[in-house]
Amino acid sequence: MPKFRSWLRAGVTALAVVAAAAFAAPANAAPAQDVAISAANVIKVTSANHAEVLEMSRTKLVVLDFGATWCGPCRQMKPVIERLAGEYGGRFVLGEVDTDVSRDLSSRYRIQYLPTLVPMRNAAELPNSRNVGYRGEAALRAWIDAQLAKG
């Protein structure tokens, strides 16, 4: 029995060391500079600042991202689209709209499914350009490129 306890203690210790190393610095953590670039291109949109965000769309593409914290596909897409906002170097602004907080904006844009991306230019939605759901990074990147190509 004492030998079993020593093996168990060694296993628990090894597991603790591995877990501590894994949580200390995630392997896919973005460098601080990338986070700063991305943060400049990502805005939380509410009724209070919606008009300002629409004004931004007069000079560059604004992508309104309608989602919710309880939505699985929204949680999958969020880190990817935020990273892309940084990678595209300010060519578009990502406006994140929490549908549970900003129900009035969800109604205004007639959001039925989550996540929904609504591209805005010159304070108006680009016609027939919504992206509903999340089909992976490659599809998201292609959709963003197509919106940027519209001018």
Protein topology:
Elements lengths: L1 H23 L7 H9 L1 E3 L5 H7 L4 E7 L4 H16 L4 E7 L4 H6 L7 E6 L2 E2 L5 E2 L4 H13 L2
Parallel strand pairs: 1-3, 2-3
Antiparallel strand pairs: 2-4, 4-5, 4-6
Helix pairs in contact: 2-4
By DSSP (H or I, 4+ residues per run), the number of helices equals 6
Q: What structural class do helix, strand and pairing data support?
A: alpha/beta
Query: Helix proportion of residues, in percent?
Result: 40-55%
Determine Rg (CA atoms, Å).
21 Å
Question: Any overview of this molecule?
Answer:
The structure is a single chain. The protein is α/β, with parallel strands linked by helices. Helix content is 49%, strand content 18%. Strands 1, 2, 3, 4, 5 and 6 form a 6-stranded mixed beta sheet that branches. The termini are far apart. The relative contact order is 0.15. Residues 4-37 have low confidence and may be disordered.
